[in-house]
Amino acid sequence: MKSHVTAALCLALLGVTAAKADTATGSQAFSMSRVQQATGQYGQQIGSNVRSMNPLGFAGNGNIGYKNTGSGNIGAFNSGTGNVGAFNGNDNTSSTSGNGNIGALNGNGNTGQYNGNGNIGAGNGNFNGGSFNGNGNVGAFNGNGNGLGNHR
């Protein structure tokens, strides 16, 4: 009989100690007011970052995406007209260059006219010096670095 009473008292003592430890730990580590405060701060930071990113691409007309300029571009960091993807139609000296590209890194850095247009893929129609260079390519790394003359 004594062993049953001793065992019951030990279990009760352990239960009370555990409950007290859980309560103390919970109030210190999982304070809901602290969690809510941190969440509110992160929410404000995220909202501020999204607003500064200009996520709808308001520079220019009819652009959709992130940091697009020009007209009718969809994606990110596109310039010129009618580009879809990322980093298309940037740093051209003529408005007739770097238009209508689909993909990434197409129609950039051209100094002549009608360069780097209508490419589909990646890395096409870039850094051409003359006119009518680097147009209408499909694939990757086509029509780049042409000097003078008419090239595809």
Q: What does this protein structure show overall?
A:
The chain has 152 residues and is an alpha/beta fold. The protein has helices spanning 2-29, 32-52; strands spanning 64-66, 74-76, 84-86, 102-104, 120-122, 138-140. It has a domain at 56-152. It has 2 helices and 6 strands. Strands 1-2-3-4-5-6 form a 6-stranded parallel β-sheet, with no helix packed on it. The protein is elongated.
Task: List key phrases describing it.
32% helix; elongated; 6-stranded parallel sheet; 6 strands; alpha/beta
Helix and strand pattern: HHEEEEEE
**What does the radius of gyration come to?**
31 Å
Integer average pLDDT: 78
Principal-axes shape call? elongated
Strand content: 5-15%
> Which percent bin holds the helix content?
25-40%
Structural class: alpha/beta
Quick take:
The chain has about 150 residues and is α/β, with parallel strands linked by helices. It has helices at about 1-30, 30-50; strands at about 65, 75, 85, 100-105, 120, 140.
